[in-house]
Design goal:
This protein has 168 residues and is of the alpha/beta class. It contains four helices and twelve strands, in the order E-E-E-H-E-H-E-E-H-E-H-E-E-E-E-E. 30% of the residues are buried.
Length: 168
């Protein structure tokens, strides 16, 4: 299982239900990495996606405690305990990668099961942001495996940093 997130300088990821930044190339990269695979998201992340549609060419899993929640194109689970049996059913030979795509609540609960993290580090601070994921730079169980050059979109500077759980 992998994490894929864009974070600010303090590993914050969202504000008021929305994203902190929109970087076109990052969204393309997100699509390239996740297409053909399985994505898991919390109900609030889905509601932040324009149109609230499933991500195309991916198996979409949505997590909510609301047993009446219905959304076409999603496998809906009401507990993370239901996640692993579902993944076994959907991906019996583990041919597909599984990506935790948001938000903070889901990432914090599933971090323990993640082996890789694809992090887009945005060189900005958003002190007003209200959602975060754990800072893997401070987590002794994780190590950085790759750092890209610095890219720029307008006045937003960013880089891609890959992490791996130690001992993999
Ligand atoms: N920067 C990035 O890369 C990135 C990526 C994705 C999202 N985001 C941002 O992150 C924010 C959303 O994150 P969030 O942490 O507030 O919410 P979230 O993780 O997307 O969703 C939280 C919801 O998931 C459900 N849930 C969580 N744990 C559960 C469990 N154990 N069992 C069953 N259901 C569970 C609950 O839904 P119910 O309330 O329906 O029960 C809960 O309210 C937004 O601002 C979004 O834009 C940023």
């Amino acid at each position: 299982m992998n994490l894929i997130f864009a974070v600010d300088g303090n590993w914050r990821i969202g504000y008021g239900g929305g994203m902190l930044v929109h970087i076109d190339e990052d969204l393309h990269r997100f699509r390239r990495l996740t297409e053909g695979n399985i994505v898991i998201m919390g109900r609030k992340t889905l509601e932040a996606i324009p149109g609230q549609k499933p991500l195309e060419n991916r198996i979409n899993i949505l997590v909510t405690r609301n047993k009446d929640y219905k959304k076409e194109g999603f496998y809906i689970i009401n507990s993370l305990e239901d996640l692993f049996p579902l993944l076994k059913e959907l991906n019996p030979n583990k041919e597909k990668e599984v990506f935790v795509t948001g938000g903070g609540t889901i990432a914090r609960q599933l971090l323990l099961f993640c082996k890789k993290a694809y992090i887009t580090k945005v060189f900005m601070d958003f002190p007003e942001a209200d959602t975060f994921i754990p800072n893997l730079d401070l987590d002794p169980d994780w190590r950085m495996t790759n750092v890209s050059e610095v890219y720029r979109q307008g006045d937003i500077y960013y880089k891609y940093v890959d992490y791996e759980r130690k001992g993999q």
